[in-house]
Specification:
Length: 334
């Protein structure tokens, strides 16, 4: 039986677990979640990762999979956190080497983006299972994304945003996360409701509850933000042609509100791009994650085993946009 030790690193926490590859799920009772002070020094941060890792029964010589948010040099295992308000002390730190010194004599430590880990977990046992192409989006503090083809993240080519990351695209002339993110949603509601400072107003989950209670400012905020997200993603869906878009992250808990708005935005964006785009978006399923909590752990485990099989670091995968019948795809470079 193959059990793969994994770490999922978030902005405020770290989760360690053993994933049983025979069942495709974390081993019962093995999941350990611990807080992390993202503004601490490098030693404290790294020790907190290791402290969680030591609480699972990982054997010596194991191959570890580690899901970590960017910016990060995943092939080299080096942090590139500069000017983003978290893990600044890990900038230019060889996190792979530091973890290797703290973990129980690992054979290898393989890193991948946290959104890619989520997507791989959904591909191997969740809502994206059985799909050749899928787009997986996480909605929390910001917008995370992964474009998967045949179970591999696509990070290059005209069919995906730069680096395969949706947060790097624009909508209405603004960076996407200036329009749709925790900060952007709170700011939009504060402006509509006449609240002086967004920090004095409700958080996203509370805004969603207000929308359900017929607060017109809250309803307009949720609708406007997620329609904009759909419009921004529609051209890339047209280029990449996924069979499904899977939504995860904390905001997915308000799917009754964001799901219809996101679908409406996708339809609007497709209509603006033309008949072929409308056909592609209409054929694409839209749903929430089937394994929202476990997917990043499962994905990290599969990534670690893939590294073992290939014997080297992952390389970028490129996918060309499929051409429209009779010509070049009009949304290949939205």
């Amino acid at each position: 039986m193959t059990r793969v030790p994994v770490l999922e690193i978030g902005g405020t926490h770290v989760t360690a677990a053993l994933v049983d590859m025979a069942t495709g799920q974390p081993v019962a009772g093995s999941v350990v979640r611990r807080p992390v002070a993202a503004d601490a020094g490098s030693t404290e941060i790294l020790d907190s990762f290791a402290e969680a890792a030591r609480r699972i029964a990982a054997p010596e010589g194991a191959r570890w999979g580690v899901a970590v948010p960017g910016p990060f040099d995943y092939a080299a295992g080096v942090g590139k956190f500069r000017g983003i308000g978290k893990f600044e002390a890990l900038h230019d730190i060889d996190v792979g080497a530091e973890l290797s010194d703290r973990l129980p004599r690992p054979r290898a430590v393989s890193f991948l983006n946290d959104a890619d880990a989520f997507a791989l977990g959904e591909h191997h046992g969740g809502a994206a299972a059985g799909r050749d192409r899928s787009v997986c989006v996480t909605l929390g503090t910001g917008v995370g994304s992964s474009f998967l083809r045949d179970g591999l993240p696509v990070t290059e080519g005209p069919a995906v945003p730069p680096g395969g990351r949706a947060h790097r695209i624009s909508v209405d002339g603004l960076p996407l996360e200036e329009v749709i993110s925790r900060r952007a949603i709170r700011a939009r509601y504060a402006r509509a409701a006449g609240i002086g400072e967004p920090a004095e107003g409700p958080d996203v989950s509370a805004i969603a509850e207000l929308a359900r209670g017929a607060d017109r400012h809250a309803a307009a905020t949720i609708s406007g933000c997620f329609i904009a997200l759909g419009r921004a993603l529609a051209p890339w869906c047209t280029a990449f042609r996924p069979g499904v878009m899977v939504i995860g992250g904390s905001m997915a808990a308000s799917w009754d509100l964001i799901g219809p708005a996101l679908r409406a935005g996708l339809v609007t964006g497709a209509e603006a791009a033309g008949p072929e785009a409308e056909r592609v978006v209409a054929a694409m399923d839209l749903c929430t994650a089937r394994r929202p909590d476990d997917a990043p752990l499962i994905g990290a485990a599969h990534w670690a085993l893939r590294r073992r099989t290939e014997g080297g670091p992952p390389v970028p995968v490129a996918v060309a946009a499929d051409p429209e019948p009779g010509g070049v795809h009009s949304a290949a470079r939205p």
